[in-house]
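Justification of computing resources. Each target in the renewal requires a structure prediction run like the one illustrated here; the chain below, 348 residues long, is used simply to show the kind of job we budget for.
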Amino acid sequence: MRKNRFIKFFCILGIGAYFFLNTSCVEKFLPDVQEAFDREVNFTQQLYKPVLGRTTLFSNNFQSGNSTLPLTFEITRIVKADGSPAPELTDVFPVTVWKSPYLGTEKTLEEIEAKRTLEYRPLFQIRKHSGEFVMYSNAMSAFVNCSPSKGYLFDVKVENKGGYKYFNNLQLVPLRESDFEPSIYDSETGLIKDKDYIPATAARSIVLESGSYTSSEKIQVYLRENKENTDKTKTLTFRFYNSDYTPISPEKFNQTKWDELIHGFNKEMGADYVKYDVVYPMPLVQVPSKYTNSEGNLLKLRFAYDRITAMGYRLDSYFEIEFGIYKEAHWEVIVVFAEGAPEFRDYE
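Resulting structure tokens:
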């Protein structure tokens, strides 16, 4: 019995060693796994027109086909359209980057600022493994060529271990900066186009003291920089006026969610204004949140109120505005009801 057990043990050991040695030999002669590089890889756009003065990300702009990922991207050359050097885009500058994600739930200015840091980078970059282009907000028309000039030409190398491909003479034609959007300025001349205000984007059931309804086009929104305010902490202030520029108390908009209106702090409500401490730009990032429109590129604010009508029912009224501000400063949002004063009183 004992002899049979030893025989079985050595047989099993021998079979295991045989399979191990043969498997090792087979693996030794297997070819290395090769990365695939699809020669049909391509950028989906050849012309890039970022607006200066704000950080712009161009995403979903590259088709990798059947290539093995990740690919590696590099800008190998960037020059002015006439072929001359472009040190303004090849030198490095201090730019603000996020070191941890902005969530929109931060409780203080300090918590937001702690998520950002300064790094030295070129003002126009390509992300190493995604092919996304970034133009940083430090790029300004004072030293960067912008439309109507022909801008810049640049080359990109895309590669992995399976191959590589060059894309030559892609175009970068920046647009002149605008401090806010929707812009009232011509992107080429920098002059005011036709109106120095933006209209509200929506209005519902806003009855004037005259008894008529007003529309969103007749609610004029002016964005003004308060250059007299020199405080270090930046602010955003809201003011409301009738057509004769009589102030309207913000308390009249009694259904407005003031504490959730914007991602601001230290709200201060006076007789004719509401002010917040904020961090610019606004929105801080292009991500949809409760403070923005569905695209996440503009703030979306609703100012609401209600009143009892002559028919005895409660009328809910509101108007909405959408905008973005990109210059760090003290800003005021001035809302003017151009056709007359809204009716806020309950019917008695």
